[in-house]
Structure formats: C-alpha cells, structure tokens
Amino acid sequence: MVDPGQVRGILISAARQRVALTDAELLGVHGHTFTRPLMRQADGLPGQGWCVTRVGLCDDLPREWERFEARRYTEARQAEAFDYWDTHDRS
After folding, report:
1. Which range is least confidently modeled, 18-22, 30-34, 44-48?
2. Using CA atoms in the order 81, 20, 48, 54, what is the torsion angle rounded to 10 degrees?
3. What is the DSSP letter of 88?
4. Residue 13 — very low, low, confident or very high, per pLDDT cuts 50/70/90?
5. Residue 61 contacts residue 51 (beta carbons within 8 Å)
6. How far apart are CA 54 and CA 61, in angstroms?
7. Among 30, 27, 69, 33, which residue's Cα sits nearest to residue 48?
8. At 5, which helix (H) or strand (E)?
9. Separation between Cα atoms, residue 20 and residue 69, nearest integer Å
10. Whole-angstrom Cα distance, residue 39 to residue 41?
11. Dist. CA 90–CA 63, nearest whole Å
12. Which of 2, 30, 47, 68 has the largest CB neighbor count within 10 A?
C-alpha cells in the first residue's frame, strides 16, 4: 500500500526542484512498474484522456491535445506548480 502522504511529499519535493515526474517514475519510487499502452509514446505529456475529462474546467485547455499545444499547456501548468511550491509551506 502506498501512503498518500508519502506520495504528496515526493511530488512537492520534485516541484520544488522544478522536476516533473511521470506516472512511471512515481510508481518506480514505490517499486511498482508501469507498462505504457502501445499506442502512447513516452513524451512526458498526459494522455489525451486526461485532457478530455477536463473540458469546461479550464478556459485555456487546448481543444486538440497534440504536440505543441499539449506541451505548451502542460509546461505552463507545471511552471505554476513549481512556482507555488517554491514559495509555500515547507511542512
């Protein structure tokens, strides 16, 4: 069983180091393996299903989850998280 508090700590630590973790990397920290579906390449971007489930939640979410737009959106959200955790509670 993975402790949610431990996962949170790992993610916050990574954000403070300005490092984006993939699902596979986070699972690897806990000794689990992640097999990627054959249709998906290891590009570090969330899958299109992640994007589609958030339509209407974010005004600037790209309608087409493809290369440049997906990378631009993902990197902007990562930068926001990195900036937030760089300046907030260290507990």
Report:
1. 44-48
2. -20
3. S
4. very high
5. yes
6. 8
7. 69
8. helix 4-16
9. 18
10. 7
11. 36
12. 47
CA atoms within 13 Å, Cβ hemisphere of 50: 11
In the structure encoding, which two tokens stand for residue 29, read together?
């920290």
Q: Provide the CB-side half-sphere exposure for 65 (13 A, CA).
A: 15
Residue 24 in tokens: 């596979």
Q: What is the band of 79 on the pLDDT scale with cuts at 50, 70, 90? A: very high
Alpha carbon distance 71, 51 (integer Å): 12
Q: How many residues does the chain have?
A: 91
Structure tokens at 8: 């949170």
Tens-digit pLDDT profile for residues 44-58: 777 766 666 666 666
DSSP 8-class letter at 35: P
- Domain map (residue ranges) of the chain: 4-87
Higher pLDDT, 82 or 29: 82
